[in-house]
Amino acid sequence: MGNTRYEIGFEQLSQIDGEAGHKVIESLKEVCPDLAKFTIEYPFGDIYSRSGLDLKSREITTVAALTALGNCQPQLKVHLHAALNVGCTEEEIKEVVLQMSVYAGFPAALNGMYAVKDVLEERRTG
Amino acid sequence: MGNTRYEIGFEQLSQIDGEAGHKVIESLKEVCPDLAKFTIEYPFGDIYSRSGLDLKSREITTVAALTALGNCQPQLKVHLHAALNVGCTEEEIKEVVLQMSVYAGFPAALNGMYAVKDVLEERRTG
Amino acid sequence: MGNTRYEIGFEQLSQIDGEAGHKVIESLKEVCPDLAKFTIEYPFGDIYSRSGLDLKSREITTVAALTALGNCQPQLKVHLHAALNVGCTEEEIKEVVLQMSVYAGFPAALNGMYAVKDVLEERRTG
Amino acid sequence: MGNTRYEIGFEQLSQIDGEAGHKVIESLKEVCPDLAKFTIEYPFGDIYSRSGLDLKSREITTVAALTALGNCQPQLKVHLHAALNVGCTEEEIKEVVLQMSVYAGFPAALNGMYAVKDVLEERRTG
Amino acid sequence: MGNTRYEIGFEQLSQIDGEAGHKVIESLKEVCPDLAKFTIEYPFGDIYSRSGLDLKSREITTVAALTALGNCQPQLKVHLHAALNVGCTEEEIKEVVLQMSVYAGFPAALNGMYAVKDVLEERRTG
Amino acid sequence: MGNTRYEIGFEQLSQIDGEAGHKVIESLKEVCPDLAKFTIEYPFGDIYSRSGLDLKSREITTVAALTALGNCQPQLKVHLHAALNVGCTEEEIKEVVLQMSVYAGFPAALNGMYAVKDVLEERRTG
């Protein structure tokens, strides 16, 4: 493993998001490579790599936030895959999304659950 | 333990939020007792009582969502207490709030961290 | 009419949203039937069935909120149909959406009005 | 009644919000009188004065939106007064706020209900 | 140039948004012509026509807000075109969107940057 | 000037926000020094220090976003001071906030303008 923030972040991104993470980075290459660089360095190099909270809880945290905010479905899908990749069960991520009905309302929970549905189908047919 | 939704919810609320939860319910008694009743029945009776996700992960979920939404500081404080009550460490809740800088921006994370600061002080001076 | 919360809610949902409501429930059957159950029980069984506010005002309330939040277009469309089903005129729902330009800004009002446009076309060609 | 947009708006504002509305305008006099002018002309002169939706439904619309958005408590209080001024019953506005638990989550509904509580106390103690 | 608010606004809209602005107005003609009229009169007739802030800074303001809010992609694209039309460089608008990673989080910045990418492609293939 | 990200960021923060910026960092020292460190490194070291957009436009960008989001008044006040510190006129920042009435609604613009009022008073009474 490398030891610049970029190298640490790229390792983390690869481990957590796999192909989906690389696609995000790729999609920014032409329009704004620095946003790709910062996305690797700050979220993955600085934050996800920290001790103090295990990766599974980090992905629960992210799925909860993105479901509640409700305006970033593509990123929610990436992190639903990530949550499953780092050891969350299908049941656990459904519970996280379901619980958002309490804090962000039923429409946010419904749209989050449709994202879960899409992600589970992608993984089955994938 | 009782077995109506209200009784199950009240048990959960008492276990998770203790005095702070009872104060929320009390504050609604006069203006809208049905909102108090529904707050016990749906979030606590129906959701928090479910298996499939442990209580610690449920509180991480809620702290993440409330920090990201950023417009419900009183409820965030109640759930920071709750998170600590059900076994989250101080370090873990700080990591959850810190991680929100990635998904909801630095102001949301800063305001969330000020809530953590207040809650930790309340518990020390108790 | 039944008298469990589920039965009361299902009646309400059928009366208000008709086919569209059933489709929402159907879409959740496989991924998370409990979210379907809770959506019937809490919003429709507990809330829409209450006296104190007539159904027409309830749908105005919901159309206003979903237009203002701006991140749940599918649910907005369901409730625009619902509003028309329970007696709102086309003019009234347009006024509700138009008024959101004041409270949530012109983009929210524009996107809400495009949803109105789609819903009215669906009903004409439907 | 005058017939410029400003005059029509000022009449509407006075009728709906009374003293509270004038205070909002007064508070902007020094820092940005044009925002005061636009607030009278567009929301009140252009929108509230329209036919097509009665004033009571307009205030229900606004209370719903401001409760759901959750980041503008002072304006919510002004419009809770306004809703009561134009004929909503206490029960009706409580139902509107309660219903927001479904669409924007329980914290938004709780904070909205605390605003209702404050407003009702203000009106009782005068 | 005319001198009613509508005429001033229509001039501004044409100068800033060109064809894209006219399409927005056209799209509302049938469903709610008054929203089209208000969109010309208030945002463009009253606000964009003001002195005190140059047009380039006004478009930077709007691109920042729409990227941060994250729930109005069609309007963001219109204003990315507008920003380029009134003299922002490609680099400047990318910096504005990139900076939103700090205030609204990385998903908002990513989705904003995808809108930039689409708009730049539209202008190249024109 | 130093050349680590922290040193570059601390220089930027000092230049832009002066005392107010240092207070934010100080307030985090005990509860989460790493959030203070990241706030210096990413927003100020990585973003504000970039070429491609002048500092004045960067602060206009931030004031617009924070007014529109509407849930981070303390940070808005810090950046209203910052905007004035880097060369925005009072008139320009009022125009930015006023323009938010179009994109985020009148309550957001009103609350933003109250923050402007407070900041201008702070600077006068100093």
From TrEMBL, chains A, B, C, D, E, F:
Source organism, top-level taxon: Bacteria
According to the entry, every stretch annotated as the Carboxymuconolactone decarboxylase-like domain falls at: 33-117
* Residues in the signal sequence: none
The entry lists its GO molecular-function terms as: peroxiredoxin activity
- InterPro entries (UniProt xref): 4CMD/NDH-1_regulator, AhpD-like, CMD-like
What is the designated name of this protein?
4-carboxymuconolactone decarboxylase
